[in-house]
Amino acid sequence: MKKNSTTKSRIVSAAWKLFYEQGYDDTTVDEIILESNTSKGSFYHYFEGKDSLLSSLSYLFDEKYEELLHEMDPEMSSFDTLIYLNQELFSMIENSISVDLLARLYSSQLVTRGEKHLLDKSRFYYRLLRKIMLEGQKKEELAQDLSASELVKMYALCERALIYDWCLSGGEYSLRAYSGEMMPRFLATIQTKKQK
């Protein structure tokens, strides 16, 4: 199973690297296969074609969260943990995902009748956020009058809103820097008085 996820991971990483460097339209499936050091059979086992890779961005984000989980200081408060995750992910987005491609992903999620993978609660992203929110509530760092699920939804909604606005603005400002100003203000609304 690990080999399968590693192969899929290599394909996704290679694809998004090439999309960023060359643009989506100028990247071919053969180049993705070559860059990922996989085979055509492996590629088509996981993906119907290049277009289906658009939905793999959430997979790439989740990989980043798993990586960050191992780098985080376990002593950080839930507030600091959420800010850290947001800043690291938005830095990755700014430095390796083109605004046009991100906008294409968001627009495809708005019109699809199929799976809305950005809202898939089984994603690592949602499971990690839920764990952080529950721990924050247990330590009395986060609001007790809302469920952990509601806190997760609020946080995810805020992140999506920031990304959406950045796409609408054509990336004319730093996503990471703007989020660095806005996310602490937003998260302050769910902090307990004890933590402020």
Give an account of the 3D structure.
This protein has 196 residues and is mostly helical. The chain has 2 domains: 1-47, Orthogonal Bundle (Arc Repressor Mutant, subunit A); 53-195, Tetracycline Repressor, domain 2. It has 9 helices and no strands. The chain has helices spanning 2-22, 29-36, 40-46, 57-71, 78-96, 99-111, 124-138, 148-168, 175-188.
Briefly characterize the structure:
The chain is an all-alpha fold and 196 residues long. It has 9 helices and no strands.
Summary keywords:
single chain, 196 residues, mainly alpha, Arc Repressor Mutant, subunit A, Tetracycline Repressor, domain 2, 2 domains, elongated
Strand percent estimate: under 5%
Could you tell me the number of beta strands?
A: 0
Report the radius of gyration as a whole number of Å: 18 Å
Biggest sheet character: none
Number of domains: 2
**What name goes with the CATH superfamily of the largest domain?**
Tetracycline Repressor, domain 2
CATH class of the largest domain: Mainly Alpha
Indicate the percent of residues in helices: 55-70%
- Globally, the shape reads elongated
The structural class is mainly alpha
Mean pLDDT: 86
